[in-house]
Fold this sequence. Notes:
It is a single chain. The chain is an alpha/beta fold and 316 residues long. It has a domain at 2-168 and 193-225 and 288-303: NAD(P)-binding Rossmann-like Domain (Rossmann fold). The protein has eleven helices and eleven strands. The strands form three sheets. A seven-stranded parallel β-sheet has the order 3-2-1-4-5-7-10, with helices on both faces. It has a two-stranded parallel sheet with strand order 6-11. α2 packs across α3 (75-99), α7 crosses α11 and α8 (252-269) runs antiparallel to α9 (277-284). The chain is globular and about 60 Å long.
Amino acid sequence: MIGISGCTGFIGARLGAMLSKSDVPWVGLARSSDSFPECRIADLSNSLALTAACAGLDTLFHCAGYAHAFSAVNGNDSKRHQEINFEGTRNLVEAAGQAGVKRFVFLSSVKAMAEPGDALVEEDFEGEPNTAYGRSKRAAERAVLEVGQRHGMHVVNLRLAMVYGSGGRGNLERMGRLVRLGGFPPLPETGNHRSLVHIEDVLAATRLVAEDDRANGRTYIVASPEAPSGRQLYDALREALGLTPCAWAVPASALRMVARVFDGVEFVTRRRIPLDSEALERLLGSAWYSPARLERELGWQARISLAEGLQEMFRQ
């Protein structure tokens, strides 16, 4: 039997649907049965409940987490990252080991790494993450490897680049909705690279590392080899939406000036503004990650092109 934590989230729900389509039995793990009646109740802070929920499972995919990857604007964000992403993952993998689960796959993030700047980096890139989200994911990865070794359990960390696809609620989906409405500024070309990966390629990698013994104890980046610039992504979104090409761009200097104004609003209100300097850097700067280890060691290949993936993302 396969278990999926975070079974009501974007990745967990798509993973469950894929398993059901293949007639693979699985069960969801969730905090309550309100939104997913046929699940095992397993709050990540309750070790006893987690151990009971893991009983009889052979494989556990840990998709649950607090997915807020921007810098915290208040202490509560940092606390939730620590409690859910690190302590919750540590509790779950320990419960899985005690319950005799054989295989445990943790869906982490490339944000568990140091910021690469303009470099194309692999898993052993030196440095520590600089956000509470990234630090919590990095600590969770270490816990997964330690518990797996102690219990003799097959464990794998998957560092996901930005995941997108139909049903997603991430930054790319929000950007796409704004482009459709004409409310997103045409970005300048800065020559940056933004790694991303379609949900179908994530699901293929997730099942592969669970089933292949060579993946035990390893950490892998999951990303498409396509890493478009912010402008290329903007143009690709317009094409996928059937909009005419846009021949002009807002200068980077103007965008940065607006972002600094919003930084000040954030400082006063202690609330996140969609286009602050951090968000703008994600559009104009690079975050470029290589899937070479996963390709080399296990033969995984991203199959969904950016054009195909964006077409699927806009299908309801």
